[in-house]
């Protein structure tokens, strides 16, 4: 009796001890993050290359933010590992207490013969707890709640008070009625109905029906049978993908859906309905809710929530939309080979989704949203079928309700790969598992390199274990004697050998992008404005909370994954020795934590204002599912499993990524066309398709289409704003296509230069829609185009043309030296101070110009006279240090209105220091014709690295002098004292 009494006491004490440890670690992590941000936020970013983008424009210090996340991750892992070892030694038993391997759990469940009843009760409580976390988290952070969430909360309270014995059945029935009613509405709309409904009507109707069913004597049977009937209706949710009605002013217009798209939806709809009809055989024995939910209903609900957009009312953003699909056109329509003529900016995901766009949407922009929804329908099919290997269908049903899965094509196939690689039966077949891991890493590495690397590295420890176990077994020797073993590996290696050039190009491109990612793609969280609805009840702490949670929640996700792996390992202490119960389980459970850690190297780089997660929000649903799957497999204690499931749901709930809370957009019978939109039926730009287009965008594309009529038979680069313009105008762009956004750093510029040498192209001076003049933002490539002699400027086309006329280098220079370059009196803002503050780390890429000069200074200006005329291309950068300029500052928000902020000492710790507001330095020179040109930059901290070569008519001109002065709010003032002056030449990409 004493042993039976002491065991739960020990378990309770350990649970309390672990809870205290987690609270302490989270609190310590939050305090540490605050101190780190306050200490580094106003520091200087260390540059190793000349790259101008948001980091330099705001004079941000981005690198320490990424470092902060990894410090938190590894510190937390070390602390938890120490705690786990301490706990194992103290308890002298399994640290997990009631954590068991899956095999032990199955034996115990089988012995007790209570599988159905026990799991059913557990699942109901877990769903209620997960819903409470989901709704509570959103309300806690944003003090908001949707109608559907409120109705569901009332219904759950009703279940807990009146019908605890059928919680799971009641919840499945309730949501099945909601989605069956939504499916009936989609049938009504498909048949021509025009009235819209709201989620409130669906929720209230489901609530009333559920309460009436609960009043029946045999309520369990009616609930299960009602759910069974609903499974037949739910697949008709897919008709939402075929919505074809538009309201134009007061008229209703139908636009034909391509036949292949309708056929694909129809085939799946028939399959899902037949599956549900086949499930009706359970009618007479319909007692277990887990046996009546169908795969088709789960897929339909998931695809229904992932469907989005406005049909043929096309988006104005021609960058992000075509970024998802342009690769297919480049390779299969334009005939450009990967990493030869065409360089994918970041993987070949756009080839896959582009194939959907062309096959189901006939390549018309009007069908972009349609094919995008079909792509995610395909992803939903794959995910649900693989989840069925791990979870019961009722569990998958709830996942499809609350999680916004994979609404980001780059991450779409990460979850399927991880589900396959953690499937126990697959892991038992070691050789087959290794082949799958190899191919998954290869395919995902090409599809999206960062996430492919994450999957590869995440399963590397398990892969090493599998290799060791396989080669140490007698089975391996027998396998080596079989031809099937070698044939299997030959099949795996064949695509790798076939795509070796693509792999090498991917590696080179990833290396080039990695060198500039912080500078070219980074956005710092420090000193940003935060959403008005974020924790408004804590006005003094909400900004700090937002910044801290940006890094603490991602770290906490990795900590949770590591803790799960420790629990799955089943560590025990026997005397002075530690034993691991299941190494394979531990290594499999560790995979989400490792995958996250790799993905963060990319996702944490850009933290745009107004969003707590940004890119992290796309990967958290994957981790949520994996934590739930692995907890269900390796955790048997209901309370501990419930905690893990609730934490998994918490991750997407923080940013409101739960699907069912807002269905209103899917409950309209038509799309509304805004006033003034242009209908493009029979338009000269055929790739519009039958679309409705914003007037300004329509005129811009039409103008580009007319102006580029002569250029469709030759290659081009940077001549149009972005991907969509090239596609719609039928042009053949090479390299990364968009110069301004991508070709910034040294390696990236060299990569594009090599393509432009192999494919002589029109290289435009248009710049792009996001960056300033390419002469500044893409200086490496601009310098090469101007000075190399391989491209000559065309004033007629406002672009560089290949030097195919046999002009000498001097003749080319005579033409190119009069290029306008950056706009006159171009303001470079804080960029020059950002780079100038990092001059020590940039020394290696500059060569100091050996030029003698005299400096003459009066009260408000300084003139530098050169003894011999200075060639602009030999001194394209100017460095100057002003003294004592790091004292006068006020506090601002980086993306605010520019007004100084009056704040307490605590708040000032997270505000940006702005030095010498309104004080700028102006540089002026004369070209060979005696015309004067200027550029200017903000003084800020006084160390300025100014790219003279970006200025108008500096390159290829001989300069006798350079003058500079200071202006305060546009008026000349006394020139501050300066010390060091240097004329520098930046390294060339063709050297």
UniProtKB/TrEMBL annotation:
Which keywords does UniProt give here? Answer: Membrane, Transmembrane, Transmembrane helix
Q: Which residues form a coiled coil?
A: none
Q: In which domain of life is the source organism classified?
A: Bacteria
The portions of this protein that span the membrane are 20-39, 67-86, 139-161, 168-191, 197-215, 222-242, 257-277, 342-361, 373-391, 398-424, 436-462, 483-503, 544-566, 586-605, 617-636, 643-660
**What protein name applies here?**
Uncharacterized protein
